[in-house]
Amino acid sequence: MGSTEATKSHAVCIPFPAQGHVTPMMQLAKLLHSKGFHVTFVNTEFNHLRLIRSKGPDALKGLPDFNFETIPDGLPPSDRDATQDIPALCDSTRKNCLAPFLELLKKLNSSGEQPPVTCVVADAGMSFGAKAARVLGIADATFWTASACGLVGYWQYAQLVKRGIIPFNDENFLTDETLDAPLNWIHGMSSAMRLKDLPRFMRVTDLNDIMFDFLKSEVENCMNSSTVILNTFDELEQQALDVISSKCRNIYTIGPLSLLGRHLPESNNHFKSFSSSLWKEDSDCLKWLDKRDPNSVVYVNYGSITVMSEQHLKEFAWGLANSKHPFLWIVRPDVVMGGDDSAILPQEYFEEIKDRGLVESWCSQDQVLLHPSVGAFLTHCGWNSTLESIIAGKPVICWPFFAEQQTNCRYACTTWEIGMEVNQDVKREEIETLVKEMMEGEKGKKMRKNVIEWGKKALAATEIGGKSYNNFERCMKEALHQDENFLTDETLDAPLDWIHGMSSAMRLKDLPSFMRVTDLNDIMFDFLKSEVENCMNSSTVILNTFDELEQQALDVISSKCRNIYTIGPLSLLGRHLPESNNHFKSFSSSLWKEDSDCLKWLDKRDPNSVVYVNYGSITVMSEQHLKEFAWGLANSKHPFLWIVRPDVVMGGDDYAILPQEYFEEIKDRGLVESWCSQDQVLLQPSVGAFLTHCGWNSTLESIIAGKPVICWPFFAEQQTNCRYACTT
Fold it and tell me: Is 21 part of the annotated catalytic residue set?
C-alpha cells in the first residue's frame, strides 16, 4: 500500500439491512468516496446474496478504494428473495452483530491492504457500529435515514408513558377514536399531529414489545451520539431540527442525498455498476412511460417492506382501474401476507387495464418519478419515497404502513400540503376518488404547485454553497475526515521549550494525548479542558506528589491556584496510619481480582533479576503489539512477570492470541497473570525493572520501590510522565 493510500481516511459504512436504509447509506458512501475517503460498505450476508441475485456478482466487486464486506445478522440462513421479519431482524442485530463487526474492523486494520479505519458511519438502527468505533477509539457518526419529524416523534416514548397514553389497555384503540386524539403538546412537531400520526411502533399494549423496546433504545443512542447525520434539508423540517439540535451535540442535514449526488465527478462511471437495490429492477416500464402523455400516469409503489391483505390489494387494483387514469403499479412478489400476488389478480383484471395499466414487480423509482409522464405518486410515505416525490415534483396519495410513515404522511398532507391521505381500511371507491381529484381536481393542481416549490428548495439546498452542501463539507472536516497525518509525519517532534513550568526537553508528542485533536469539539478534549479549568479555579487543590520531584510545575500551579497542598506519595504517607487500624486491611480499591501466587513465584528468583510488566487498568493495544511485547520479553532471556488483562487487546481474547509454543518457550522464566498487587510486586527484591504505561500511580510506585522504568505511554498525561522520567 502506497503512502498516499496509507494516509487516506477510511470510512466503514453499515446500513440497517432493509432497502430504505441501504439506499441512502450507499448514496452517502459514494459521496464520501468522491471526497477522498477509502470506503468499506458492510452488508449482512443475507442482503449480500440478494444484491448478487438482483444485479449479478459484478455489482459487489467494488474498487481498490471502495470495498464490500459482510457480517452475519444472527438469523437462520435463508435464500428467500424478500425482506426478513423486521422484529426478528432488529432483535437479532442488536444482540448478535457487535462481535462480528468488531472482528471485521480488526481484520481491516491488520490486513495492510487498505488504510486503517478512521471512522464508522452506522445506521441509527445499528448502534453497535458506534459502540465498536468507541472500543477502537475512532470517530463515529450515526446516520438517521428517516425524517427529522419522525425522530422527534420517536423521542416522545417517555412522555407518552409519563402521560399514561401508552401502553394501551387492549386493542380497542384500533377501532375506537383513541388514535384521533390531538397531540398539540409536542415541542418541535406540527400542531396538526394526532396520536395516530406518531410512529406506528408506539401503538403497544406491552412496553416490552420488541419493536417498541428496540426503537426506544436505538433512538436514545442516536440522540446521545456525538454526530448525527440526517437525510433532509433545513427548510423542510426546521421546527423538528431545532429540537434535535438542542438535544444532540452535532447534527448535519445533508439531504436530499440523491440531489447532493449530482456533484459526484462524471469520471466515477464505475459507480454505475454499484447497486443498492435488493430487488431486480424492470427497465421496460420506462419505455412504457415514454408512450404516455405528460403528467398522465399514476405511479403506485408501497416500498420494500409494506404488506397487506388480499382484500386490500383487490381494493387498490379496482380503484386504480376504475379511475380510468393510466397507472404503473409495483406489486412485489411478497406484498400480500402469505399470498401469491400473481394468482390474486384475475385475468379479467389485466384485460380491463391492458390499454392503460402496467403491473411490475420492481423498478428504479427515482427514474420513474422523474419521468415526464408521471403525474402523481401513490406511496407508503417511506422517507426515501417522500424525498424522491419532492425532488421530482410529484404530489402524493398517502397510504402509510408502519414506522414513521404515518408521521411523514401527516406532514405531507398538512404542513407541506403536497398530499392526500388514504384511509387505512382502503376501499376501491376512495382510491378512485382520490386519483381523480389528484389528477383532475383543483386540490391536485394546488398540491402539484406546492411540491414543485419544495423541489426547488431541495435543489437550492444541495447546490454548491447551499445549506446541505455546506453541511456535508463541514461534516467531513469536523466529524469524519480527520487529517491524522500528524501521527506519521514529524509534527509531534516539534520542541515545546516555551511552556513556563515545564521541562525544556518537552516536545509536542509529550503533552497529554487528548490534546491531539482534529476537532475542538472532541469529547475528551472538551471534557478535560472544562475539568482542568474547574480544578484551577478550585478553592483548594490537593496533589499526590512531592515538591522536590516537580518543583517547577508546582510553582506555576501555585501562582494560579489559591491553595495547593502536595501530600504525596500517599502510599508512603499511609505508613503513619495507626497500627490499631488493622480493619483497613480488608478494604480494597482494586477493580480486578488480584493473584497472590506471583509473589511466591518472585520469591524463587534472584535479586533484581525479574522484569515486571504492567500496562495499567485502561491501556489497550492491537493483537500485533501484544505479540511484539510477548516475543521481545521472551527473546530477552530475562525472567519476567507479565500482567495481561483479559481486555488488553481491542476486541480480542488475549489468551487465544498467545500460542501454546509461546508458553513452552517461557515456562522456565516467564509468568503471565491477569492482575496483581502492584505495590507488593514492585517492593519484591527479585524485581529489577518495571515496563510500564507511565500512569502516575505506577510512576510513583516505581520511585518508592527504587525500580527503573521502561516506558510505553498509552494516553492522557502518560506521555508527559514518560518524558519527565526519561529526561528530567
Answer: yes
